[in-house]
Amino acid sequence: MFRHLHSDINAVFENDPAARSRFEVVFTYSGLHAIWAHRIAHKLFRKGWFTFARIVSQFSRFMTGIEIHPGATIGERLFIDHGMGIVIGETCEIGDDVVIYQGVTLGGTGKERGKRHPTIGNNVVIGSGAKVLGSFRVGDNSNIGSNAVVLREVPDNCTVVGNPGRVVRRNGERVGDRLDHKQLPDPVIEMFREMQKEIDGLKSELEKLREPVAGGETRS
């Protein structure tokens, strides 16, 4: 238990440059309080004391604004920054060294039974307002952009943005535009690209019309 407390505090200093002292972190960081309350609630939940576990989690929700179901599994050194509005579902699994910002939902789609919440890998960063919904895995070392809505599996070492979420970087390289079975293009971006091509074509034709012809006159 004390090992967890120590590593949780260290995670704050590793991820938040505003942290000044251990005293300040222990007494003022609501994300830390929510994690510690969850560790108690999770132990009660695993022992079958479901009502007491929910009481602890609901009290933590009231005090911190962060709702973590007592059934959720959380790894080492989770850092919750400005955690108001975070919701983590019952069957969610979170790996080690994960960073979660305010307004994030790790939830289900409402249609599944059993494992219905996402599994978050190690070293994942989930930006503010992001929604990760469904029973799938977000790979290690991945980044979920702010306000992204992720509805399908994310491979390791990826960056996901948009609604619906799309992979824009994989292993440090931009994902190509070609259609494949794993990565669908964003129709809105494709539409803008086609419009840009048409605009470029019209500009080219206009420049040709303005070119001087024999006699010093321009084409009209």
UniProtKB/TrEMBL annotation:
<keyword id="KW-0963">Cytoplasm</keyword>
<protein>
    <recommendedName>
        <fullName>Serine acetyltransferase</fullName>
        <ecNumber>2.3.1.30</ecNumber>
    </recommendedName>
</protein>
<keyword id="KW-0677">Repeat</keyword>
<comment type="similarity">
    <text>Belongs to the transferase hexapeptide repeat family.</text>
</comment>
<dbReference type="InterPro" id="IPR053376">
    <property type="entry name" value="Serine_acetyltransferase"/>
</dbReference>
<keyword id="KW-0808">Transferase</keyword>
<dbReference type="InterPro" id="IPR001451">
    <property type="entry name" value="Hexapep"/>
</dbReference>
<dbReference type="Pfam" id="PF00132">
    <property type="entry name" value="Hexapep"/>
</dbReference>
<keyword id="KW-0198">Cysteine biosynthesis</keyword>
<comment type="pathway">
    <text>Amino-acid biosynthesis; L-cysteine biosynthesis; L-cysteine from L-serine: step 1/2.</text>
</comment>
<dbReference type="InterPro" id="IPR042122">
    <property type="entry name" value="Ser_AcTrfase_N_sf"/>
</dbReference>
<dbReference type="GO" id="GO:0009001">
    <property type="term" value="F:serine O-acetyltransferase activity"/>
</dbReference>
<dbReference type="GO" id="GO:0005737">
    <property type="term" value="C:cytoplasm"/>
</dbReference>
<keyword id="KW-0012">Acyltransferase</keyword>
<dbReference type="InterPro" id="IPR005881">
    <property type="entry name" value="Ser_O-AcTrfase"/>
</dbReference>
<dbReference type="GO" id="GO:0006535">
    <property type="term" value="P:cysteine biosynthetic process from serine"/>
</dbReference>
<dbReference type="InterPro" id="IPR045304">
    <property type="entry name" value="LbH_SAT"/>
</dbReference>
<keyword id="KW-0028">Amino-acid biosynthesis</keyword>
<dbReference type="InterPro" id="IPR011004">
    <property type="entry name" value="Trimer_LpxA-like_sf"/>
</dbReference>
